Structure formats: structure tokens, C-alpha cells
Amino acid sequence: MRGDSSPELVLEAVTAMIGTVVGEDYLLGLEVGMDTSFDQDLEIESIEFVALSEKLMEHYGEQVDFVAWLGGMELEEIMGLTVGRLVDYIVSCTGA
Amino acid sequence: MPNARANDIQLFYQRLGAGSPTIVFIHGLVMDNLSSWWYTVANAAAGVADVVCYDLRGHGLSERPESGYSVADSVDDLVGLLDTLAIDHPVHLVGNSYGGVVALATAVSHPERVAGMILVEVHAAVESLRPRSRRQLAEGLDLAGLVLDDQDVNQWLENLGGRKLNRMAASAKALIYGTTLVGDLRESPAFKEVDLQGVSCPVKMVFGEHSDILDRAELLSRVLPNADLRVIEGADHSVLMGATSEVRALVLDWVRAHRPELQETEWRAS
User: Fold this and answer.
1) ipTM of the complex
2) Cβ pairs A/B, distance under 8 A
3) pTM
4) CA atoms within 13 A on the CB side of A32
């Protein structure tokens, strides 16, 4: 999906997927940006993050290898992930 | 979302990686779900193996029926999941706390499905343990689920934000008060030594040096014919979260040892 690989569009897509996982209503009072932390800001449950990864894999398919990406991280690193770091990773895989 | 119909309920699962062997991760009770393995070890293991992790009945994103929470039910759920996923070859079970109990019970009742096990802080009740320890599974559950002044539980909860805490507490309450889980586990029989002596597959047991259930490690080491014990220095019952890198390395070593066809260069690259 090269057409949607700009950071802005990826952020938009990721934000929409977060909304489907945590509920659109919950996101109404929050602004999701590149600096937003999944843990501290969104307070996303770990099982919700698993569900989000599932949606990301469905959306981006094999071109984005989340399993390998996450498999190389320590627990603290995953807990500290920001939306921006995820978006940057997706952009680096999908390429403009 | 991957849900599998198993033993007449919907179980949420993740299938990661590919190839051989197949490693199935099983999480602990109540305030736990597949994410504890997914965040720590499962994704890394998926680089070198076929990986399944799933939410136990009533946990995470799996269905939460009112009943069916005995150890035997958990075994039926796991075997049902393997059947649904068409995994008919023997698998390696990696269980944490209660997950280890499910693994051990599966090896006792379905030895043909289990190639090996890694049991992390396995909360197994064995008949020959003193009576207090036999009751500890259910008592420990009460403590974790209901009594929030327990030091470990409190420390863990402090790390959670408000939304997470509320959601996990609501989920734990629904499981404890809305299902037969506590009663079902109290009624689940302890393992018989003679059954454990029949478990011939290789078993790696991992316990924390300061674990409050270290007595099980000693007993199981003695009774299981092919078990090897690793005690992690400085760790307590929360080995998976407290000594994640050691557990991950141990699981990856286990995969390497049970995947002889893997070339050393390929292993290093992974």
C-alpha cells in the first residue's frame, strides 16, 4: 500500500485503528499525535495492544513485520512505545 | 480477530512465526492474559518457531462463560484449541504459574500431545505436599483477586494507570464473582505422584530464588523423571516480569535444543 505510506496518512490510519480497539468514545477527549505514549497517555491495556497489532498486520500485511520488530524489544521498550515510533516503523517498511 | 471455537467456547489466540517446533504459551490466572507472554517471549520465539499463545477461558479477549474453570476444563480447552488449529503433532508447552499447571495436567492426561514443557513458577498442588500447600492454589487466587493489600499485588497495581487498573479490576471481579472459577479450582484434585512419575517428556522448571512456592520445585524435580530445575537468582514468583531476559533466553535455548535441523548460521542470524 504505497499510496498511504506518508507519516501523516499512517498516523491517521493508526489512530483510526486505535479507536476501533479502545473505543471511539474514549479517544474523543484525547489528541493522538506522534508523541502520544500507548502506556502513559492512552493507558492502553496490554491485551488491547495485542489486538491493535492484529489490526495493523491485517491492514499492512507482510510488508510490515511487527512480530520481528517487537521480538527484538525488551519489555520496557514496548511499554514505552509512542504512536510516532510505530508510525515511523511502518513508514520505514512501506517506503514512500 | 483470531478466535477459535474450542471445547464449545470462543478462545482468542495469536499464531506467530512458522516451522518447527510448535511452542504453546499458557498464562496465569485472573489478572493475566496472553499479553504477558506476547510482550516478553512469544514474539522473540516466533523468530525461530511456530508459536501459539491464547487467552484462557474467561481471560483477556476469550469468551467468559459462567462455568468450566477446573484444571480439567482448562486441559480440554487447550486440547480443543490444538484440534481446531489442526495441530496434531506433539507441542512444547510453556506455562507460567497456573499456565504451568495446565501444561502439566495436559502432559498427564494427553502425553501424546506434549513433546516437552517449560514450567515457570508452576503453581501445582501435589498430593504429598503438606495440606496447606495443597490448598494454596485457591488461596493464592483469593489473595491475588480479592485482597489488594498483598504487597506484590499492590506493587504491580501501582504500575498501572487509572484506566488500565479499572478495566483489569472489572475483568477480575467479573471472573471471580461472576463465574465458578474459584470453586472449580478448589475442587480440582491435586496431582498424584504416580501420575507425575509417568510424565516422560523433557521438562525445564524455572523458579525464582525467593519464590514462596519453591517447595513445589523440589518435589517436582524429584518426582518428574526427566526434569531439570533452574532457580533464577534474586527473582521471586514474578519471574516472567522480574527476569524476562533470562526466561526469554531459556525458551530460545530450548527451541534450539529441540530443533536440531536448524543450522548454526541460521540460528545466529535469527
Assistant:
1) 0.89
2) 56
3) 0.89
4) 27
